[in-house]
Specification:
alpha/beta; Rossmann fold; globular; disordered C terminus
Length: 192
Amino acid sequence: MTAVFLDRDGVINENRSDHVKSWDEFRFLPGALEAVARLTRAQVQIFVITNQAIINRQVVPIETVEDVHRRMRSEIEAHGGHVVDIAYCPHRPDEGCQCRKPRPGMILALAAKHRLDLGKAVVIGDFLTDMEAGVAAGCRTIMVLSGRGQEQLRTPGNAGQTFAVAADLPAAVDLVLAGEFKLRQLSASGAR
């Protein structure tokens, strides 16, 4: 195992319908800090990849997003975890960039920068776009049901997507550390 790429909102912290706009609105999900620490102790390199269109939508300045990330990393470090690097996409969906998930740009850039073998990497997210980005980069993928995961499994029109499913980040880390990926394929009517 070379690396795990974690989506942020809905995986590490609570997903807010109005977005995380400051550190005061950031809340770690139960077990997330210990899950990251477990990966760190297993010598897995951890990266965070997150779409943050609130920057180019001018909801928050880039400095605020970077402050949230700095404080998040500090808390993770204080609990025994280590995030090697964080990539975020500031673009709106209509800007057509290569970094916004479901495109794999953030993963590919981090892989090039840190010389990662993506065939041994795992993407953990709570949205189908996380799964699509991971597959496009050649990674294995795990959908967590925290955040938006449960509603994503019921989304019609996503037939054929294949990924492992876990209740939350701690359960996904169990799968990663055990090396067991029981894949699930979505049918036209939702999860099978």
